[in-house]
């Protein structure tokens, strides 16, 4: 029997920014207190773009900038929104950031370059890997680690949102 320790990865093809917004909006609407989403992919892939769309649909008013230099920025939407970018942080430094306060808090955490702090992420989380496939085309690999994230993926699959 095939064993899935984690949910199977699905592929979402974003042909233009609006498609990335569609996925971000769906996930923002599904988000609950304690939701954690890790974002990875090269510079310019669209991690911040996704985060900005996500914030908009979580009801955050105003501008969401890349938190590369501040590491963590907090916003207020339907739920508190914690936007993190750990690109410039080592795992050792990240251990002192008190990330658990955010991850297990009452808000929603989005972590750019989450692979750097992979071992500090909650076991239950959603992961998005964004790859540039053309000027405005992006291949987004979505994987749920535990519930409700695997259920979200099954829903998106059933609704024909994923191509693979
Ligand atoms: N389909 C798409 N999805 C997301 N971003 C896109 C898309 N097409 C073009 N872009 C552009 O790609 C760039 C992504 O930059 P950014 O989000 O800052 O990347 P990262 O945070 O991964 O370094 C933005 O300028 C955005 O407008
Ligand atoms: Mg970024």
Q: What do you see in this structure?
A:
- The chain is α/β, with parallel strands linked by helices.
- It has a single domain (10-158), classed as P-loop containing nucleotide triphosphate hydrolases (Rossmann fold).
- Helices cover 27% and strands 26% of the residues.
- It contains five helices and seven strands.
- Strands 1-7-6-2-5-4-3 form a seven-stranded mixed β-sheet.
- Helix 1 packs across helix 2 (47-57).
- The protein is globular and about 40 Å long.
- The chain starts with 9 loop residues before the first strand and ends in a 6-residue tail after the last helix.
- The structure holds adenosine-5'-diphosphate and magnesium ion.
- Adenosine-5'-diphosphate binds next to helix 1 and helix 2.
- Residues 47-48, 66, 85, 112 line the site of magnesium ion.
The CATH H-level homologous superfamily? P-loop containing nucleotide triphosphate hydrolases
- Name the CATH architecture: 3-Layer(aba) Sandwich
Structural class: alpha/beta
Distance between the termini: 21 Å
Order of H and E elements: EHEHEEHHEEEH
Determine the strand fraction and express it as a percent band: 25-35%
The number of E-state strands comes to: 7
Estimated helix fraction? 25-40%
Structural Rg? 15 Å
Number of domains: 1
Query: How would you state the average pLDDT, rounded?
Result: 94
Instruction: Using the coordinates above, name the CATH class.
Output: Alpha Beta
Shape: globular
Q: Which runs of at least 5 residues are low in confidence (pLDDT < 50)? A: none
CATH topology: Rossmann fold
- Strand arrangement within the widest β-sheet reads 1-7-6-2-5-4-3
Tally of separate helices:
5
Query: Which hetero compounds are present in the coordinates?
Result: adenosine-5'-diphosphate, magnesium ion
């Amino acid at each position: 029997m095939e064993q899935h320790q984690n949910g199977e990865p699905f592929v979402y093809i974003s042909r233009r920014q609006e498609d990335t917004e569609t996925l971000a909006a769906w996930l923002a609407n599904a988000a609950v207190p304690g939701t954690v989403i890790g974002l990875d992919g090269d510079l310019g892939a669209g991690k911040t773009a996704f985060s900005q769309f996500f914030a908009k649909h979580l009801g955050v008013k105003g501008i969401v900038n890349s938190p590369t230099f501040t590491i963590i920025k907090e916003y207020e939407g339907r739920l508190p929104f914690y936007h993190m970018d750990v690109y410039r942080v080592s795992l050792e430094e990240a251990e002192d950031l008190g990330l658990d306060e955010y991850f297990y808090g009452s808000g929603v955490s989005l972590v750019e370059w989450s692979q750097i702090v992979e071992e500090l992420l909650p076991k239950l989380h959603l992961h998005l890997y964004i790859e540039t496939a053309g000027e405005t085309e992006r291949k987004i690999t979505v994987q749920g680690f535990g519930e409700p994230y695997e259920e979200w993926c099954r829903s998106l699959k059933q609704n024909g949102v994923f191509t693979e």
